[in-house]
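Hi R.,

Here's the chain you asked about this morning:
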Amino acid sequence: MFSIQVVELVRLADSSTALGRITVGGFFETFEMSLAFWSPEEYRASWRDALEMLRHRDDAISCLVSSITDPSTSNFVFCWPLYRNGDDVFVQNAVVILEDLTESFDPARPWRSVRPHASVDEDGNRISEWLTDMSQVTSFLDQMEA
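And here is the predicted structure, written out as tokens:
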């Protein structure tokens, strides 16, 4: 199973956030989503575009933005990078440090700021990742578009 969704809106006196949930096989995680820059609809549209990226190439790199504030004044963006290798799709959790990028972050194409797939970090530690397949991703994408 694969899915990502907005599950709850939380309105606080000084800000608005939402809770999202990603499911990859037997793994799931709930995460906070800032609504300071994007609405829930904009997150969903970005997720649709990101998943569409995976359909077109067997070696595609994409990402699902899980929380974003205005990139012109922010330091980072939270996301779930997606790495397609044939029918397999590897999912990781990452923080894109905006000041480390060689080009400006583009919210319309966040996958351009995702590093290439690696299963170990620069210190030799294993990076947590979860595996799904394109049939699960395609099934979820078809549900989003219905």
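One quick note: The mean pLDDT is 94.

Cheers,
M.
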